[in-house]
Amino acid sequence: MEFTDKVVLVTGAATGIGKGIAEAFAAEGASLVLGDIAGEKLMTTVNELKAKGVKVVGLKGDISNVNDANALIDLASKTFGRLDVVVNNAGVVDRFLPVGEMTDEVWNLTIGVNLNGPMYTSRRAIPEMLQHGGGVIINIASVAGLGGAFAGAAYTATKHGLIGLTKNTAWMYGAQGIRCVAIAPGGVNSGITLGGEPSALGNSRLGPQFGTLPRVAEVKEIANVAVFLASGKASAINGAVIAADAGWSAGG
After folding, report:
1. How far is CA 1 from CA 22, 222, 230, in A?
2. Catalytic one among 25, 80, 96, 155?
3. Can you list the domains of the chain with their CATH numbers?
């Protein structure tokens, strides 16, 4: 129970990978602060965890809104008096849109949630962590941050950017006790959808390869990696990108 007396914040925690990560940290004794834009589903998750004796609070909000992101960090400080781990998990996908078909709406939404959101939460969390001797920030990236053949232009750009944010944060704050790492899943059996009709071009270019890739991962497998990376066993891992993708990126 390494995370007893530790406070873990997870964004996008109502369902899927975020919920699985929250459950995994709860099983290790952590107190939780959970955020999601889907308020009703979020409170269902919060109540399920409370019924198991977990110390947990939830806050509905849009992580791409700086005020909502700040409020989530502030809730952790107000409720528990500290913040030890931030898992930036909230994300949206982009219907496989190539740049020639990209709309401002899809681009701005994807950038806002996938990249601005983690920056907002990290920026607010850093001072809180420094007050207590350090902490860990885990960014849920993607194999789309390792290459160009797994998603549309917006999603791919944001995940590359998130990996850059991870490395810079690790370099800047590592000497002060803050580690920042990224997990790059491939396909995960999490229930996430494209959010609309896929691009015909994007689907024709990306779709065929998915039939040749290794299996998809289960949510629990990604959650296990997150718990390990936040633990003392991973104390030498900083700025790294862990491809928890069942081999999707092994082919280059």
Report:
1. 14, 19, 13
2. 155
3. 7-245 (3.40.50.720)
